[in-house]
Amino acid sequence: MARGGKREGAGRPAGAVTKRTREVAERALAEGKTPLDYLLDVMRDELREPSERLDAAKAAAPYVHPKLSSVEMNASVNVSHEDALGELE
Q1: 45-57, pLDDT tens digit by residue?
Q2: Which distant-in-sequence residues (6+ apart) come within 8 Å of 44 by Cβ?
Q3: Residue spans per domain, the chain
């Protein structure tokens, strides 16, 4: 009898694109501009309101610039008790 739970190697690999997602992306490219292209056009259009251009820039940014990730820092500082007291004076 089968048991539940995660099985090694089962399912779609992480980050893999589904067949439907790939088809939608290919159709968008074949038909002309992608949503990102449109957002970039709006952002660069100097005749549009600044608020519209800003909204387009905010929406397009994650596709153009990766988010910065936090980095864990492990550091130790060795200061003697006398040195620490000397800095207070």
Answers
A1: 999 999 999 999 9
A2: 53
A3: 36-67
Q: How far, in whole angstroms, is CA 78 from its chain's centroid?
A: 38
DSSP assignment of 15-72, as one string? TPPPHHHHHHHHHHHHHS--HHHHHHHHHH-TTS-HHHHHHHHHHHHHHHSPPPPP--
Spatial distance between the Cα atoms of 43 and 38, rounded to a whole number of angstroms: 9
Q: What is the distance of C-alpha 3 from the center of its chain?
A: 36
Global confidence as pTM: 0.47
Residue 35 to residue 27: CA distance in whole angstroms: 12
How many CB atoms neighbour CB 60 within 10 A? 19
Please compute Rg for the chain using Cα positions. 26
Give the separation between CA 21 and CA 15, rounded to whole angstroms.
12
